[in-house]
Amino acid sequence: xxxxxxxxxxxxxxxxxxxxxxxxxxxxKTKFNSVWKxxxxxxxxxxxxxxxxxxxxxxxxxxxSGEEALVRELTARGIQGVASYRIxxxxxxxxxxxxxxxxxxxxxxxxxxxxxxxxxxxxTWEPSxxxxxxxxSFWGYYGNSWGxxxxxxxxxxxxxxxxxxxxFSVPKNSLLWAGxxxxxxxxxxxxxxxxxxxxxxxxxxxxxxxNSQK
Length: 214
Prior knowledge:
Strand 7 and strand 8 form a beta hairpin. The longest helix is centred in the first third of the chain and has 18 residues, at about 5-20. The N and C termini lie far apart (about 55 Å). A 6-stranded mixed β-sheet has the order 1-8-7-4-2-3, sandwiched between helices. Strands 5-6 form a two-stranded antiparallel ribbon. About 30% of the residues are buried. The chain contains 6 helices and 8 strands; from the N terminus they run αββαβααββαβββα. It has a single domain (about 5-125, about 155-205), classed as Rossmann fold. By secondary structure, the chain is an alpha/beta fold.
């Protein structure tokens, strides 16, 4: 039986490959339940500038496919997207001091980082209910309650995949925007990644980070 992280990586890897091969997909139910915008984000735009896509994962195939998917979304919005695996050697990627040199030499203005933080099953109890509307008066209730149908309720199990999306300014070395998203009952990794990537880049535009400079 696969452990949680192995399952997640394989799920997302399959999805990322599908995103790369297919132009459309049916999105899962994804929402950003927590967002934050830093004070340094004011007045900053990445439009026309080089922004690196970074997927934090030790699975090389997942990282490469994910970064390419993110690059496509950045480029489609007028940003010079570049995958981190193309500018930072694999052996130096996990060492901040060494990776920093490569990002700066590449002239990167920003980084969009994506990382899976949780994959869990969530159990929800749906309470019981009574199908009669006659609760306004005792006698109304009394006369109809004998025929009321009782629903004992049920338990619902959902799979929730949580992803963390962060946007950094490289020159300022500061966090500009952060979001935590949840995807409920994903049928494929494509639904998870494609939706989160699109929503994250959409947020960049809404926050002014992808707007054209006047």
